[in-house]
Design a protein that fits this description.
With about 180 residues, this protein is of the alpha+beta class. It is built from eight helices and five strands; from the N terminus they run αβαβααβαααββα. It is globular and about 70 Å long.
Amino acid sequence: MNRIKYILATITVMLTSAALTQEIEIRSDELDKMVWNKINERLVSIGKKPIVEFEQGEMKDFSTRVCETLIPANSEFRHSSTDSISKYSGGECIYTYTTTSTHENDYINYLENGNLEAIAQRIVDGWVSSDSHRNAISIDWYDSTTVSTIIRYNKKAGYFKVAAAWHEEDHLWELMGNN
C-alpha cells in the first residue's frame, strides 16, 4: 500500500511539475499584421509609399515555416536557402528575440495584458537596427509582402522567445528566370 501511495505521489508531482513548466506557443495573425503595418508606417515616415498587399497565400505559408525552424530554443539562426527564397518570395528578413528572467518577464506580461504593440515594435526595431534588413524593408516597389511570427514562452521559467520572418514578392525573380 505504501508503495502505491509513493507511486501516486510521484506521478502527481511529475504531472504538476510538467503543467507548471509547460511552454505555450502563440501564432497571432494580429501580431503579424501589426508588424506589417509598422513597416508600412515606417515607409510613409521616410517619404515612401506603403505596400498595398499583405500576402496570405503560398508566401505566407513559407514565412510561417521559416518561423517554425527559428522558434525552438536551440535552433540555429539561419536564413532560408536561396532556392527556397526564390521559389516562394523575392527576399527574406528574419528575427529572433529571446529573454529569460528570474523575476517578472516584461514580454510575458505584455502577452498576458494583450499588449502586442511592444512585441511588434521590438521586431521592427530589430530589423531597422540592421543595415541589410533596414534596406530590405525600406523598399516600396514590392508587389506584396508578408510577416509571420511565432512566440513561445514559459511563465514559470521566465522564458520568452519570438521568431519573425518578413518576405517580399516582386517580379524581379521572374524577369531573371527564377520563378
